[in-house]
Amino acid sequence: MTSIDPAELEVCLRVLAQVEDLPAEHDDAVRVRRATAKIFKAAKKFRKSERKAAITANDRAVTALTATGSPDRIDDETQGLPLVSNATGATAGTLLRARSCYTCRKRFVEVDAFYHNLCPSCAAFNHGKRDARTDLTGRGVVSILAADRLVLQPRLYSTFLLWLLSELFEQLPEVGDLDKPKLAFVFDEAHLLFDNASPALMQRIEQVVRLIRSKGVGVYFCSQFPDDVPGEILGQLGNRIQHALRAFTPRDQKAVKTAAETFVANPKLDVAKAISQLRVGEALVSTLQDNGVPMPVERALMAPPRCRMGTITAEERAATLARSPVGAKYDRPVNRESAYEILTRRRTETAAPDRAAPDRTPAAKPEGDMLHDWLWGTGRRQGMVESMAKQAARTVGSQLGRQILRGVLGGITGGRGR
Predict the structure, then answer these.
(1) CB 193 within 8 Å of CB 161
(2) At what angle are helices 367-376 and 384-412 packed, to 10 degrees?
(3) Distance of CA 141 to the CA centre of its chain
(4) Nearest CA among 280, 282, 292, 238 for reference residue 263
(5) What is the largest distance, in Å, between two alpha-carbon atoms of the chain?
(6) 69 and 63 in contact (C-beta within 8 Å)?
(7) Nearest residue to 157 via CA among 185, 184, 190
(8) Segment 276-297 mean pLDDT
(9) pLDDT score at 374
(10) With contact defined as beta carbons under 8 Å apart, do 187 and 153 qualify?
């Protein structure tokens, strides 16, 4: 049906005009309202969908103008296609539906021309970091993670490092085989990464280490013994430097044999014997040659480091942080109100009037005690707070696992962060 007969339409409009003069409880008025209710709901739904479509179209157009949210985004800068914005100014536009910032979770509507998921303050902060290539003296930057307390929790330490590598693999553009890496990671005490690691986790680490080189990132592992690094990971490493190993125990003897077998053989050098005879400042070295083939192992002298061998003092650390362009951002602690604190405050506010009110039903259990049992539980059942805490722990664990798996699998399969 495409249209209504004009005569019938006139009759319909005349009847509706008459209904307005009837009492609201009249049977005829009730029947007409019921008959027209579906039409009214359909019209209301249509107008709502129109408004929603207009908001979605506006926000999608604003996001498309940004560099990180463009549907035509290409990260392959090796082909001369840098990540740029299509917006004409510093901002891409204004959202009609507020969005949560990816970093600070604040709601915002003003969208930066480059970062579509960051609020203006976080976008300005990230612009400063993205544009920074050197420190204030013009030299390159070496960042050292002070993990003296983090290493006391090996599982958290290994999870954090894997997440960091996964995020870098997903975010950094492909650059191919560079002569020198743009970014180098040196993991000290590397055995903490692999102790008690599951086979699935080992496979993810192997994939990231193998593929992240195409992003211009070099990964170096430092450990006491060669067998601290699993063979699957060790096989992906092209450069090897081995200092002296003293074979005093059965494990030391096995480590010497393992280290000797990992090098490309040199007919002029007994590797197993040389490892135990290396002096201070000497090492066995094997690196990749220009054609990508590992060179035979050689005994070499190592140049001593020209820096202080030790940690900086607390005063030096404070001075360095004060000069850092990102110090003002990360030195401010953020302690958001937790669910536990909210529930405790509500419990206190609810229990206060109950204590002031007279006990009219001595035989019944006081309402404050009932609320206490409901929130905190009894000896026979757990309370709501305990249930929420357990659920939150499971949720955080699953979300962290999904974030790591998303970063690894998304980067490996070619997924791009939006």
Answers:
(1) yes
(2) 30
(3) 23
(4) 238
(5) 112
(6) yes
(7) 190
(8) 84
(9) 63
(10) no
The β-bridge relationship of strands 282-286 and 240-242 is: antiparallel
Nearest to 218 by CA among 122, 279, 291, 287: 287
Pairing of strands 298-301, 282-286: antiparallel
The answer to whether the CB of 264 falls within 8 A of the CB of 289 is no
Write out the two tokens for 137: 């003296």
Q: Return the number of other C-beta atoms located less than 10 Å from residue 72's C-beta.
A: 7
- Bridge partners of 284, per DSSP, are 242, 299
Query: CA quadruple 333, 319, 123, 178: dihedral positive or negative?
Result: negative
Q: Quick one: 117 exposed, middle or buried, by C-beta within 10 A (0-12, 13-18, 19+)? A: buried
Residue whose pair of structure tokens reads 């926000």 in the numeric block: 59
Q: How far is CA 136 from CA 58, 102, 320, 324, 363, in A?
A: 41, 29, 11, 9, 75
> Quick one: tokens of 347?
């419990």
CA dihedral 253, 254, 255, 260 (to 10 degrees): 90
Amino acid identity, position 98: A
Q: What is the pLDDT of residue 325?
A: 66
Query: Is residue 278 predicted with pLDDT exceeding 80?
Result: yes
* Whole-angstrom distance, CA of residue 146 vs CA of residue 143: 9
Q: How far is the C-alpha of 228 from the C-alpha of 246, rounded, in Å?
A: 16
Distance CA 190, CA 200 (A): 18
Residues 6+ apart with CB under 8 A from 222: 186, 187, 188, 189, 190
What integer best gives the mean pLDDT of the chain?
Answer: 76
Give, in order, the Cα–Cα distances in Å from 37 to each of 11, 30, 32, 34, 360: 19, 10, 8, 5, 50
The whole-number pLDDT of residue 418 equals: 40
Rounded-to-integer distance, Cα 66 and Cα 64, Å? 5
